[in-house]
Design a protein that fits this description.
Two copies of one chain form a homodimer.
Chain A lengths: L12 E3 L8 H7 L9 H18 L5 E5 L3 H12 L5 E6 L2 H12 L3 E6 L8 H10 L4 E5 L1 E2 L4 E2 L3 H9 L3 E5 L18 E3 L13 E5 L1 H8 L12 H8 L12 H17 L1 H21 L3 E2 L10 E5 L6 H12 L1 E5 L8 E5 L7 H15 L2
Parallel strand pairs in A: 1-13, 3-4, 3-5, 5-8, 8-9
Antiparallel strand pairs in A: 2-10, 6-7, 9-10, 11-12, 12-14, 13-14
Chain lengths: 372, 372
């Protein structure tokens, strides 16, 4: 019979595109003995998660909770609930996650219009407005923080245009939430999703989501069943809310503990202070990387502080250097995806992995490897 | 700003239909600092999970892993990957989870034939064989351990009939795996799913699954895309297996740690010893409950040891007694679902919650409450 080794992973500095490091208080929360998922004490924890997520998303939306899957399940929850076969969707694509949105919409049987921008650049709002003149989408979808390229997408102007066209505005905030400001209500966002393993610094496994009353109204008027039972919001709503909780699935109790504690830590630090910390450490990293000859993929005004995409200088071997960082220094950084594979690194400064010391150890290790 | 209370849940004895209690070694595993989900050390852990799950399912199937969602996501994974619109499915229904299978199959656009049995009784193999004469299903689905009723479904005879009819045999083992024997290969099962929070005694959040080469062949011949991106096995296969792992989603790292440690504990105890422990404590509970005037819903030969469904004796108030058990004794037991609500209790003896002491404290508490 197979004898599995003791679980004994090496302690790592997690500076890739996620998961980020997790605060000891969150690890301790994960080790808390479980209560049942219908226990009144667990319902209090669910309520706390909902209230704290509303503060993070800056929304009043009643329908705000965490889907029992990773950020990708959050994406799918939005698409399968908002779209019915034959509906139109306008999707903005400037990286891997915009492409994934298209794949999701197609699997819902939606007709699609794409607005593309080159990888590393934001979507031009003018092109979206132009497209809205030639199609009549039910949903307009865009990525706030494109994890594959490091682009931060301005959203203020877009929300108005999308609502003006009578469409629902769907936004991916997997990498941005908890690291830069996300203002769901102010920006006119109708559906939003995120993940726990980026700037929230909880382990991967839950997907915070929120839906505006307009989005709920559209869902209530569906004529077909949602194609996913697991992600059907008409069922999940009675499990996560309402006077009497109705059994749907069994919520991941320990993951909810972790998210609860991670959200408490975020609110204790304060959102403004947290965003400022991300900007500050990003600036420190940027200066150090530029000194070493790295160039950023994204123009300064559209750079994400928590996801630094840089071109690998000539003479540095992508795989070899990342392997040395991991093996000799216990530092994980991310390689490039798609067209960027082998040419770009993605260096994360997310949540608990966003400290001055993280920046220092990475820069020092790179200097040593590069002989500088 | 909202100030959430400290996370401080009461220690409970979890004797409901799941989650069950979790071993301290598994809690400790959950508190282990994270490595990245593409870290070679995490891939070793994924490989360990796959190997140990094969031993638990008693299968040689290459495609054996854990879906990043709860048992219900495991169910949906099986249905959306095996069925295409217009396919036929034969579904056996004798409780809540058989009904849920029908809901899943309908959302896949499948044509459905049902074989029903009254709640509390197993499905009669003769009726399935009869039905197979009048329809030509691609998939025949059945629940091994019906968590809503406590029925243990004999499967040996059925597998042969299903394969004889050229169909794939799909089985729900959410509540049975790790508590009674599950012999995937011997019983001719082609697709199987389970959950972590029952007899595996890990927290809820992952769904072990396995697929036979026959099932994989059928999936490879699909002419339509799987309707779920998140659960699409053609994508998940390259993430969980193959020479080079291809990024799909971010696996719940801490949950994988927990499942890894829970599986190690199970194999250290030994499957036969573990099944015997479940039978032994079930017998002790049964004798005690019958002495107190409880009657089992299910006939002795079809009873599940880990899920004891008993009729609530006249004069005992369902909600009031369960509330007293929880508040005064910190013991959670389960109420009835659907037709059984208010009339039946479901008492779990699963994994770490299946000890002689658990049986003793529950019986003693009931005696006190009933004045016996």
């Amino acid at each position: 019979m197979f004898q599995a080794n003791e679980l004994n992973p090496t302690a790592r500095f997690l500076m890739g595109p996620g998961p980020s490091e997790v605060h000891p208080r969150v690890l301790k929360a994960m080790a808390t003995p479980l209560v049942g998922h219908l226990d009144p004490q667990f319902i209090e924890i669910m309520n706390g998660v909902k209230t704290m997520l509303r503060q993070l998303f800056r929304t009043e939306n009643e329908l705000t909770f965490a889907v029992s899957g990773t950020g990708s399940a959050g994406m799918e929850t939005c698409f399968v609930n908002l779209l019915e076969p034959g509906d139109e969707a306008l999707i903005c694509v400037n990286g891997v996650f915009g492409n994934r949105m298209c794949d999701n919409a197609a699997r819902c049987g939606a007709k699609m219009t794409r607005v593309d921008a080159p990888w590393g650049q934001p979507i031009d709002p003018v092109m979206v407005k132009q497209a809205l003149k030639t199609c009549k989408p039910k949903v307009v979808a865009i990525v706030h923080a494109e994890t594959s390229t490091g682009v931060r997408q301005p959203l203020e102007e877009l929300g108005e245009a999308v609502r003006g066209a009578g469409a629902l505005f769907l936004v991916d905030t997997v990498t941005s939430l908890g690291g830069v400001d996300v203002r769901m209500d102010d920006w006119g966002i109708d559906a939003i999703y995120s993940g726990t393993q980026k700037c929230l610094s909880a382990p991967p496994g839950l997907a915070p989501v929120s839906f505006s009353p307009r989005a709920v109204e559209v869902m209530d008027k569906r004529t077909t069943k949602v194609q996913s039972w697991y992600l059907d919001l008409s069922l999940l709503r009675t499990y996560w809310g309402g006077a009497k909780r109705v059994y749907h699935h069994t919520a991941p109790v320990s993951m909810a503990y972790a998210l609860y504690e991670a959200l408490r830590l975020i609110l204790e630090e304060g959102l403004e202070a947290r965003f400022e910390r991300h900007e500050r450490n990003h600036a420190l990293l940027r200066d150090g990387l530029e000194e070493l000859g790295f160039e950023f993929v994204v123009a300064p005004e559209y750079r994400l502080p928590m996801l630094n995409a840089v071109r690998i200088p000539k003479g540095l071997d992508d795989a070899a250097v990342r392997a040395r960082l991991l093996d000799e220094y216990n530092i994980e950084i991310g390689g490039g995806l798609g067209d960027f594979a082998g040419r770009v690194w993605r260096i994360g400064l997310m949540g608990c992995s966003c400290t001055v010391n993280h920046v220092h150890i990475l820069l020092a290790a790179l200097r040593q490897i590069m002989g500088r």
